[in-house]
Write a structure and sequence with these properties.
Structural class: mainly beta
Number of helices: 1
Order of helices and strands: EEEEHEEEEEEEEE
Strand order of the largest sheet: 6-11-8-9-10-7
Distance between the termini: 18 Å
Radius of gyration: 19 Å
Oligomer: single chain
Number of strands: 13
Length: 186
């Protein structure tokens, strides 16, 4: 559940996938590409609210500006637009570091779908879905157990406000402030 009530509106939401990749072209012309670190999401958003809701903004900043993680919906970016309607579960355990998850026949989602597992909030992207195997990027940050639910609708990330946010606020009848946050990787 997101931390904001309907009193604070979020707009101008920008979600960025940060994927540290190294690429090199050999003398034969072959291009070698490899991941050099963990993938994570950053989000930038504008909070808009009326002056009578300033206390809600102040409470959010007081609670989360010192590095505490908060949950935030990815909005339309986290909505599932595919054809799967059933609940998806892992049919075998997968260890931390693996990139393939076994699922039951007919229980896959389309390539490009964002998913999460019930035991942690990291956001993953499906990069292949053949033969009852979901291949994901990045590799698992936590173990996945047999029967674990794979969430693919209404993805909500866990984020921390960035240190370089400017909390200057022009006080008036209608106020807005732009903030940046980084996915919380536990």
């Amino acid at each position: 559940m997101s931390v904001f009530t309907n009193n604070i509106k979020l707009s101008d939401v920008q979600v960025t996938s940060n994927e540290p990749i190294f690429s090199n072209q050999s003398w034969t012309g072959v291009i070698h590409t490899r991941s050099t670190g963990i993938q994570y999401y950053t989000i930038q958003f504008t909070m808009q609210f009326e002056k009578k809701y300033l206390q809600e903004y102040n409470a959010f900043i007081a609670q989360y500006s010192q590095g505490a993680p908060f949950n935030l919906s990815l909005g339309f970016y986290g909505n599932y637009l595919g054809t799967q309607t059933k609940s998806i579960q892992a049919t075998a355990a997968s260890a931390k570091g693996a990139y393939q998850i076994l699922v039951a026949s007919g229980y896959t989602v389309e390539v490009g779908t964002l998913i999460q597992f019930s035991n942690h909030k990291k956001i993953y992207r499906v990069i292949s879905n053949s033969n009852n195997v979901l291949s994901i990027f990045p590799n698992l940050r936590q173990n996945v157990v047999i029967g674990e639910i794979i969430k693919y609708k209404g993805i909500e990330g866990q984020f921390m406000l960035n240190n370089d946010n400017d909390y200057s606020l022009n006080v008036g009848n209608a106020m807005s402030i732009q903030l940046k946050a980084t996915e919380y990787l536990q």
